[in-house]
Structure formats: C-alpha cells, structure tokens
Amino acid sequence: MEINEENFEQEVLKSDKPAVIDFWAPWCGPCKMIAPAFEKLSNEIKSAKFAKVNVDESARLAQQIGVMGIPCIIIFKNGEEVERIAGFQTEQQLRAKLTSVLD
C-alpha cells in the first residue's frame, strides 16, 4: 500500500492496527536492498498494516514526520510513533525489531 499526504491520517493515524511505514525513494540503493525483507515481513506479520511512502512524491509528509534520511521505517500505534528504525537493516534485524515492538 502506498501512503501519501491524502491518506496518511486515515490509513496510519486512525488505523485500528499498528502501522509499519517504510519511507523510501526510487534512487536510494539501501531502500532497494531493504524492500524484499519489508515485503516478506509484511506477508508474515498479520498483526500490523505495512505500507510505503515515496519521499520524492510525499516530501511534505516526510518533512512533517521528521524523516531526515532513508530508508526509515516508522511504527505507529494508536496514532502515535512508537519506534523509528533508520538505515539499512537485514531481514533478521528488522524482524527482531518489529517483533519486539508489535508483540
């Protein structure tokens, strides 16, 4: 799912499930490297909503949230940011961090 300024509030802040949001850009090498792990975990972890924000297309949203670098994965629960994972992560690192926050 793609998130942008128009659907961020409804899909993320008002979501009844935790939201795991990957801030990325098409030109970002580490973003491309983390994408398969993010996709795999989104299919495995059903307790959360997984989505992506293209920072080139939604620069204002990324700025409002304070995303300073990408890739940046932010976990929201009940409309509040609860975890921020900056930089490249292996699948194992990402799984461990998501599991600790979502369980």
Overall pLDDT? 96
Number of DSSP helices? 4
The N- and C-terminal alpha carbons lie at a distance of: 22 Å
User: How helical, in percent, are the residues?
Assistant: 25-40%
Assigned CATH superfamily: Glutaredoxin
Order of helices and strands: HEHEHEEH
How many beta strands in the DSSP annotation?
4
Task: Report strand %.
Answer: 15-25%
Descriptive tags:
4-stranded mixed β-sheet, Glutaredoxin, globular, alpha+beta, single chain
Quick description:
With 103 residues, the chain is an alpha+beta fold. The protein contains 4 helices and 4 strands; from the N terminus they run αβαβαββα.
What does this structure look like?
The structure is a single chain. This protein has 103 residues and is α+β, with helices and mostly antiparallel strands. The chain has a single domain (8-98), classed as 3-Layer(aba) Sandwich (Glutaredoxin), CATH 3.40.30. Helices cover 40% and strands 24% of the residues. The chain is built from four helices and four strands. The chain has helices spanning 8-13, 29-44, 59-65, 91-102; strands at 19-24, 49-54, 72-77, 80-86. It has a four-stranded mixed sheet. A hairpin with a 2-residue loop joins strand 3 and strand 4. The radius of gyration is 12 Å and the shape is globular. The model has no long low-confidence stretch (mean pLDDT 96).
